Amino acid sequence: MWHNYMVVSMDVGELNETARALGRVVEATADKHGIDSLDHDVLERLVDAVTRGSASIEEAKTQGGAQNDVANPNEGLGLFRNVNDLFNRVLLPRLSSQRLYRAYARLLKWQGKWEEALRAYMEGYRCSNAAKMERGEADVGKWREAVGEVEDIVDILRNFGPKVEGYKWKSQARSVVRTFVARSKDFEDEPEWARLVELQEELKNSKAED
Prior knowledge:
This protein is an all-alpha fold. It contains 12 helices and no strands.
């Protein structure tokens, strides 16, 4: 019942109700179905609706052009409270996935909580194929996807790490790449290997700037 209500609410644009219904679905089914109880597409659309109204929560709180974000219960600040509660009360205590943490990170960025957003991105990375890959992996397609995940988290650290005073993003990025490279020796003949080596050297060279 709650799943159907969630779908209908999303279709008609009642996003506060969508968030409530998604929470009830997860509460009822997470113990049995785990991460499959979460509709990631719906969750990401809810985060989109919160963050698309204004560039940041500070802008949403100002008078003038962003005032509608406060008044509209299905967008911006008007939707934020329920979506934030959905994450903190329902989803994060029960579930873990890369997409879940990345969606939460976007919500945290919108609030200007850069350090918490970086922690959420790193939690998401720890759920990724790249972080879980072990030596001896033979699936080249899976490895190539993992290379992209490594490059992506390094870009996130590079772009947002400097926003947090004292955050040692360079050493964290070096650790991510070093660990992945050590597990990837069987793929040294693949074209993507050169990208990994180049990224590792770039981060090593940046050590002198720390």
